[in-house]
Specification:
The protein is mainly β. The protein has one domain: Beta Barrel (OB fold (Dihydrolipoamide Acetyltransferase, E2P)). The protein has one helix and nine strands, in the order E-E-E-E-E-H-E-E-E-E. Strands 1, 2, 3, 4, 5, 6, 7, 8 and 9 form a nine-stranded mixed β-sheet that branches. It is globular and about 45 Å long. It comes from Brassica oleracea var. oleracea. This is DUF223 domain-containing protein.
Amino acid sequence: SSNRHSGVRHSTFESLRLSRSSKSIASGFLCFWDSLDFKKDMKFVGITVLFLDENVNSVIHGFTPVERANHYKPSLKAGSIVNVDPFEVARCSSMYKITDHPFLIRFISLTIIDEVITGAPEINLQSPSD
């Protein structure tokens, strides 16, 4: 499938490398929730998101810290296909590991989350029936 309309060049989660990414990812946006620090009176520390990859049905999580949470909340729509660019790829500490992926996507001040309307990759947001 070509993304001629939007000029979206994206990579799959497999191709992510530790560092600030020069690529964008287009993925299914599964869900998000407020992250709380249980050691500090349930203090709000940011938003955790789950992204679904188009190719290998793998899931990776993303995180935006509290100071950018309000900026991103309006563009977080569960069940949508989104393009995320630019972002930082960090190693996921085992303490916060919520997916099998070794990395996480960290939103930076330049990160833009756009819902992809045309030229979106095919991502099946339904779980396969057993």
